Amino acid sequence: MRVSYASDQGVGADNEDHAAAGTNWAFVLDGATAPHGVDTGCRHGVRWLVGQLAGALTAELSADRPERGRPLADLLAAAIERTRAGHGASCDLANPDSPSSTAAVVRRTGAGFDYLLLADSTALFPAPDGGVTAVTDDRLDRLPGGRPYSPELVRAARNTPGGFWVAGTDPRAAHEAVTGSVPSTDGRFALMSDGCSRLVEYYGHGWQAVWDRLVESGPAALVAWVRAEERRHGVPRGKPHDDATALVGAFPRPGRPAPGAEPAAAEG
Asked: Which of 19, 156, 207, 213 has the most CB within a 10 Å radius?
């Protein structure tokens, strides 16, 4: 197993991204910060939610047996349920503005990878022809009326059919994620939060260029590229600097020896 990552805090008091990896799985979470002045109904912050969800998802993925191979959506749903139980009676878990997170999860299989994407994080997989396949959940980009979205629209669309889904207090969201499988012979992949996908969405670089930079120079260089573009061109919307996390790795086929088998976590 070979995994490396970089995470850089953007504007805000905390880095609300989190990355982790185990023997045959990896994930990146990106906490969603509520607009200033919005009542979340929760005494905990986004950083707490992301940390709790990361710990619960690590436990679920680590306990899953390869021969059993529970669907990633089931594992994320169980992790959300664990996190939900940790809130306590003082938190209004029905509040649509309760702290939440995106999720990008991969798991190595005999033929390639299973993946799960919830909200706007991205997974990259190299193709046999030298290209790269990008998978993301783009439903947040397709809300009615176009950006900029009002807080009322986002609240009404969050975790509702026809809107978009995030990992927060409702385990059903896990089963609304974008899921699938891709073939892979060499086990290479990458995950990133939307702070890094700005390179494509805001600045017009292709996913191939993003993958090449990750492979040739590493995730820290990719994050540095994001920051350079933000300083040079500004941003069309959102924070001038968002939390940015990139993880790149390679997993052997199941059954082959894999050094570094202990789960590894990254939090900027």
From this structure: 19
Cβ atoms within 10 A of the Cβ of 195, count? 27
Domains detected in the chain: 2-266 (3.60.40.10)
- Report how far residue 218's alpha carbon sits from residue 189's, in angstroms, rounded to the nearest whole number: 13
Least confident interval from 134-138, 209-213, 250-254: 250-254
Q: Would you state the pLDDT for residue 35? A: 76
At 171-181, the pLDDT tens digits run 999 999 999 99
Residue 34 CA, distance from chain mean position: 17
Give the C-alpha separation, 25 to 245, whole Å: 17
Per DSSP bridges, beta strands 188-192 and 244-250 are antiparallel
